[in-house]
Amino acid sequence: MRTILFSIAIAVSSFTAILPAQGQLFGSYVTGGLNLTRDMGYHPTAVLGGGGLQMEANHFLATFESFVDDSHKLDSGTGLTARVQGVAFYRPTKNLFFGGGVGYSALWTAPYNKNVWHPRAGAGYDRLSESFSIRAQAEYVFAGTDHFNGLQGPEFNVYLPSPRSHAHWIYRETIGTYHFYTTMGSPGTFGTEARFTMMYRF
Predict the structure, then answer these.
(1) How many domains does the chain fold into?
(2) DSSP assigned state of 20
(3) Helix or strand holding residue 92 (H, E)
(4) What pTM value is reported for the model?
(5) Which CATH number covers residue 176?
(6) What is the pLDDT of residue 26?
(7) Which 8-state DSSP code applies to residue 39?
(8) Do residues 15 and 200 touch, judged by C-beta distance below 8 A?
(9) Taking the alpha carbons of 105, 98, 126, 165 in that order, is the dihedral positive or negative?
(10) Span 75-113, pLDDT tens digits
(11) Which range of residues forms the domain containing residue 131?
């Protein structure tokens, strides 16, 4: 599975680097930045990189992306996490959209490995004008197959400018507040994860 995820991440990044954008309907991008965590059982700072594909139509939008970060677990001092996720939304009006999708993540450390699926559902809003645009998006990440830790909680994304714009450079901020169990049967706790990234869209 580790080889498969790395292959997907490399393939998406390579594919997005050569695939031309087609107006606002379809676009590819690469991304990189910082992944900051608090009370999640990881060292607080890590770097991440990856790529993705976006579709923006009048009544439909979708994103498929893959990225890797080198967040080290506190218990082992080692760690690498790869994630692949896809979401699709229906846009009933010009600005509002809602839908959901699923994400897969795999963690590798020296003493152990872990992989889980997390369904997600949510909604978002585009604010568009001639001189300014922004997208705000909120989703709830469900525990899915994470039976050991049961991680779940709200996740918020802000894009500046909105991916509906013609901009090549987009700032993206993702902040999640999650409830989980450090060990099976232990009292629940909360932690946060924040990703601050720049996207370059081809």
Answers:
(1) 1
(2) P
(3) none
(4) 0.85
(5) 2.40.128.100
(6) 80
(7) S
(8) no
(9) positive
(10) 899 999 999 999 999 999 999 999 999 999 999 999 999
(11) 2-201
